[in-house]
Every structure is written in structure tokens, then in C-alpha cells.
Write a structure and sequence with these properties.
With 131 residues, the protein is of the alpha/beta class. It is built from 3 helices and 6 strands; from the N terminus they run βαβαββββα. It has a 6-stranded parallel beta sheet with strand order 2-1-5-3-6-4, with helices on one face.
């Protein structure tokens, strides 16, 4: 079982060290095999040979051809990379037809959450489902 996380930096917010520190604790807690936090993720994503799982807000559904799956119903791949955007941009142009697109149902869907917060929920869900 191999699990990676690829995320865009939150430029202009807390600074690189604070941004990285938030992720580091999560990575250790869930035994993540590899992690990349970058301004642009295209080149790194292109090197991935595992299943790609994009976390996108439900409001992006009209912009993406792939079927959106609620995290509650999502079957996590054994080997995968979870891909997170940031509060200023999305990853719509990187999504291929064979990729999974997952959303987290929240009480206020018009208000996004930081990637590290969503990642914690996703990784907990993965663990609870036995992976």
C-alpha cells in the first residue's frame, strides 16, 4: 500500500514554514509515503504511476466532466496520490477521465476549507474504511 499527497502551497498566507508544518504532523500521523507541497504541481503529478484522487469543492462540478463522488461513498484505491489545490486555485485542468474526483459534503458548500483540513478528513476516512 502506497499513499502520496501532492498539494499546492498557500502562498501569501502563513509563509512556507508554517504551511509545511501544518502538513508534517498529518503525514506522520497517517504514515504517508511521500509528500510534495509546491506552487505548481503539474510536473510532479505527471511522474505519478498510482491512481490519482483529486479533492475538489462540489461547486466545481459543472466545470469537470468526471463524476464527483461524495467521500462517504468513495472507495479509496490501495495505491494512490491525493491531490489538493489551494484556496486561490483549483486543479481542473489536470484531471484526466480516469481520475477520481471526490468532494467532502459540508454544511456550507460555498465556503471551501484549506487542503490540510480536508486531507485530515480524507485520511481518517481511508483508515476507518480499513486501508
Amino acid at each position: 500500500m502506497t499513499v502520496y499527497i501532492l498539494a499546492k502551497t498557500e502562498t501569501g498566507w502563513l509563509g512556507e514554514r508554517a504551511d509545511t508544518a501544518q502538513w508534517e504532523h498529518l503525514l506522520v500521523a497517517f504514515n504517508i509515503d511521500g509528500f510534495w507541497l509546491q506552487d505548481t504541481i503539474d510536473a510532479t503529478l505527471d511522474t505519478m504511476t498510482v491512481s490519482r484522487v483529486f479533492l475538489e469543492p462540489i461547486e466545481n462540478q459543472p466545470l469537470i466532466d468526471n463524476t464527483f463522488v461524495n467521500l462517504v461513498d468513495f472507495e479509496h484505491p490501495i495505491d494512490c496520490v491525493y491531490v489538493f489545490g489551494n484556496s486561490a486555485s483549483h486543479n481542473i485542468s489536470l484531471i484526466r477521465p480516469e481520475d477520481s474526483v471526490v468532494y467532502l459534503d459540508t454544511p456550507n458548500d460555498s465556503r471551501g476549507a484549506f487542503g490540510v483540513s480536508i486531507a485530515a478528513v480524507v485520511l481518517y476516512d481511508r483508515e476507518r474504511k480499513g486501508l
